[in-house]
Amino acid sequence: RNMSSAGPEGRKKMRECEGLIDSLVYYIQGAIADHEPNDKATENCVCILHNLSYQLEIELPESYAQSIYMRRRNISNNDKTPGCFGTRSRKVKEKQQDTPLPEEKSNPKGVESLWHSTLIRIYLSLIAKSTRNYTQEASLGALQNLTAGTGPMPFAVARTVVQKANGLPSIRAMLHVSHPAVKKTAVSLLRNLSRNTSLQNDIAREVLPDLVSVLPECVPGCDIACETTASICYTLFNLTQNSSHNARLLLSAHGLPKVIAISMNDSNMFSKASRAASVLLYSLWSHTDLHSAYKK
């Protein structure tokens, strides 16, 4: 677990180690089958896989790049920060939707397992069944890593999470936990998922009211809560930018007073959340058909 966070070269060596990833996945599958999702070894295994999935899209070996990533190389080279706080243009989003999704292998081996639907479902199962905060955070974080970036792999993983594996209810539940790091990672994952235009209506229907409910009444006083608030605002921005219906959903969930209050914070220390709320307000005002409702 410590070695898996040693940087790009360490990740590369561990991904190439024959049988290592397969063994980790095998162990976690056994723990879930035995109804033991809370043991320490499972936590360690998930944390290793979380670390090995970091920047996976841009660190893939050339053999994988040619098969699932080559068509995205030009766009991805212009986006060197594929993390949860990166920004992408609408043009990139539209191109992403046009890219054919990679075909899954029925029996993945080694690094192929890291983005396979089998492991995605394992993460979602652990999020739902484990009560261990580090296991929940690592599972959410692995999915966050896999859905970062602009290539066909992140989009395929996002579609699997939302539409094929019905993962939104489990992720939604993590918005209401008391552990701040788990909540922050869940929101960051939802932010990544919400970038995919074809999934936005599903996400809005499932989690938009919950996102509004966990928004604070004003800018929170600690860094992690402030980052979480900013990420919620950017997720809501993604969900409402192109949808008057979703903007109305935010309005009916009584989100507007909260967003206004956050945007009006004067402290420079927590300007990230205020800036995000202001961006969201500006976008909401673009729906001219809602102006009278906003004024009320």
From TrEMBL:
Gene Ontology terms describing biological process: cell-cell adhesion; desmosome organization; heart development; intermediate filament bundle assembly; protein localization to plasma membrane
Keywords attached to this entry: Cell adhesion, Cell junction, Repeat
Subcellular location: Cell junction
Region Disordered: start-end pairs: 79-109
GO CC terms in record: adherens junction; cytoplasm; intercalated disc; nucleus; plasma membrane
Compositionally biased tracts (Basic and acidic residues): 94-107
Source organism superkingdom: Eukaryota
Gene3D superfamilies: Leucine-rich Repeat Variant
SUPFAM superfamilies (UniProt xref): ARM repeat
Family: Belongs to the beta-catenin family.
PANTHER family: PLAKOPHILIN-2, PLAKOPHILLIN-RELATED
This protein's name: PKP2 protein
Species of origin: Copsychus sechellarum
Gene name tied to this protein: Pkp2
